[in-house]
Every structure is written in structure tokens, then in C-alpha cells.
Design a protein that fits this description.
By secondary structure, this protein is of the alpha+beta class. The chain is built from ten helices and nine strands. Strand 4 and strand 5 form a beta hairpin. It comes from Tenacibaculum adriaticum.
Length: 308
């Protein structure tokens, strides 16, 4: 048995903001992917994955919702026969490893699934997002459902608000100097503790004001610029966003990268922002000149995501 491939995702803009209903833009990232596989004698990572699927099965069996039903007998039988999720998506890196797994389980075992080939109305997209949120909560404690949605549809998604999501057309890549890239922190980040820090900060009136008046404002402007191809304006807004994140989201940035972050803002060689919830994993970078950014960050592992 070998299931279809599901890809990683990158939330270009909107981390934390989407929890509080500001905009977000997520794109599939095809460098990393995963698929359900089966083997008689499994060991190592495959065995760990199989055991995790067994726990996930128990969670799904108890899930109370009218939105989705699963062929639980078939799922249990496949797990007992050595099914696992074979994935190159790094875990705890903010690129949707659990999202791809959730998408693959829904695709194979949901009995009345909404398919990618249907006319995806707003209602269908919201239903899918809600289903995926319920499913992925097993892994994170609380999930927006966006990672699995992105992985399942394999389309760029524009999140206007919690109740308004639509497929987005992003400008095709050019062979220019500019780029979006991933910077590997070589540390694993956990979503739940980071979200808890954010929720505690939201109890502070000054922090809430900063989120609505600065963070959300620049996030929305970045999304608008990116979708319209306004590159000059985009970099101005990304720089402002990078500064805001450095000032207000320090606990989400690994300590070793505070100076690296600051250096990018001061030199304009690159601008960094969180990729997902932070705390480790990947950091997202934007640069007008990828060669210059590579030289400036020569001690770190970079991965290209998108060219301007």
C-alpha cells in the first residue's frame, strides 16, 4: 500500500495574527512531502509513526462531530498491519508535518469526503477547515485546521478571516535577485507552549493594541503587496514587520538568532520573520538580493522557497 503524496506548507504571512482574525497567506512547499505506506516488519521512525497512528485512531474513534465520519474498521486494520506515515517533512519546524498526516488520513478514510475536484465553495472550505481543526487538535492541543487544508488542497490559500478563506493566485516566480528563503535554526520548536505564551501576552492591553494597530496592519499590507507583485512596497512592509516581531515576540525567536535578526534589519541584507509559531524550526527570510543574503548568513543552512 502506498497513498498519494501530501506536501508541506509555509505560512508566508499571518502567524499568530490568524488566531486573532487578521489575514494570512499560506503556500504549499513541495520540497517536503509525506505519504501513508505499509510494511510487514517496521522499526525505527516507521514504528514510532505506526504507534502515533494507533493513538490517533483512538482519538478519531471518540471524536463527536456531525461533519465527518471515518471508516474506522479499515483504519484500525491498516494500522495493525503496519501502516505508517513516511515523511520527509521535519517535525517541529513550522512547515506542517502533522498537517500533511491529517490530510492523508482524511483523504483515505473519511467516508463522505469533500474532494479537491469539486467546486470548492466557501462553505465547503470552511467545513474542511473545521474538520481538519478537530483532527489536528490531537497533535497540538488547538489547531486552526489551516495546515491540513493547505496540504490537502495543495493550493495557495488567502485567509481573510476565520470565516472567509479562498484559494489565492500568487504571482509566478521570476528569475530575479530577490527571494523568500528558510533559515534553519537547527532547534525543534513546539507549537503549544508558543501559542500559550501568545495567549498570555494577549491579556495585556498594550500587547493587544500592538497586534491590532501594528502587527495586523503590516501583515495585511505584506499580503496585499505580495499578491499584487508590488515588490518595492513589500520589502518596506516586511522590514517593519520584522522589527515589530523582534520587539514583541522575543520568546518565540531562539535566543541565538536575536542578533542575526537585528543584523538583517540594520544592513538591509535580509529581513526575518517567524515561520509558524516559532520557538525553533525554520525562520522565514525575505531578501532583495539572495546572493548577498547567502554571504551574510554563510554560517547557516538556507533553503530557497520563492524567487522574485
Amino acid at each position: 500500500m502506498k497513498g498519494p503524496l501530501f506536501y508541506a506548507k509555509i505560512l508566508l504571512f499571518g502567524e499568530y495574527g490568524i488566531i486573532k482574525d487578521s489575514k494570512g497567506l499560506a503556500i504549499p512547499f513541495n520540497s517536503y512531502k509525506g505519504a501513508l505506506k505499509s510494511a510487514k516488519n517496521i522499526s525505527g521512525e516507521a514504528k514510532k509513526s505506526n504507534e502515533s497512528l494507533a493513538r490517533f485512531y483512538k482519538y478519531l474513534a471518540k471524536l463527536k462531530t456531525d461533519l465527518v465520519t471515518f471508516n474506522l474498521e479499515e483504519l484500525k486494520k491498516d494500522i495493525d498491519e503496519g501502516m505508517y506515515f513516511d515523511s520527509s517533512i521535519p517535525q517541529g519546524y513550522g512547515v506542517g508535518s502533522s498537517g500533511a498526516l491529517v490530510a492523508s488520513i482524511y483523504d483515505k478514510y473519511a467516508t463522505d469526503k469533500i474532494t479537491v475536484l469539486e467546486n470548492l465553495t466557501r462553505d465547503k472550505l470552511l467545513n474542511l477547515k473545521t474538520i481538519f481543526s478537530l483532527m489536528e487538535s490531537f497533535f497540538h492541543g488547538k489547531s486552526s485546521g489551516l495546515d491540513p487544508l493547505n496540504s490537502y488542497l495543495s493550493l495557495p490559500l488567502l485567509i481573510n478571516s476565520k470565516e472567509n478563506i479562498e484559494p489565492a493566485g500568487i504571482p509566478s516566480q521570476k528569475e530575479g535577485k530577490g527571494a523568500v528563503f528558510l533559515l534553519d535554526s537547527e532547534q525543534i520548536g513546539e507549537t503549544e507552549p508558543m501559542v500559550n505564551i501568545f495567549m498570555n501576552k494577549m491579556k495585556n492591553e498594550g500587547f493587544r493594541k500592538m497586534i491590532s494597530e501594528e502587527f495586523s496592519l503590516y501583515t495585511d499590507a505584506c499580503i496585499e503587496d505580495f499578491l499584487r507583485g508590488n515588490i518595492k512596497s513589500l520589502f518596506g512592509n516586511v522590514k517593519s514587520l520584522s522589527k515589530i516581531v523582534l520587539t514583541n515576540f522575543k520568546p518565540m525567536i531562539p535566543v541565538a538568532f536575536h542578533k542575526v535578526w537585528e543584523h538583517g534589519i540594520q544592513t538591509n541584507d535580509y529581513y526575518l520573520k517567524l515561520c509558524g509559531s516559532g520557538g525553533g524550526g525554520y525562520i522565514l527570510g525575505f531578501t532583495k538580493d539572495y546572493d548577498k543574503a547567502q554571504k551574510s548568513l554563510k554560517d547557516y543552512k538556507l533553503e530557497l522557497v520563492y524567487r522574485f
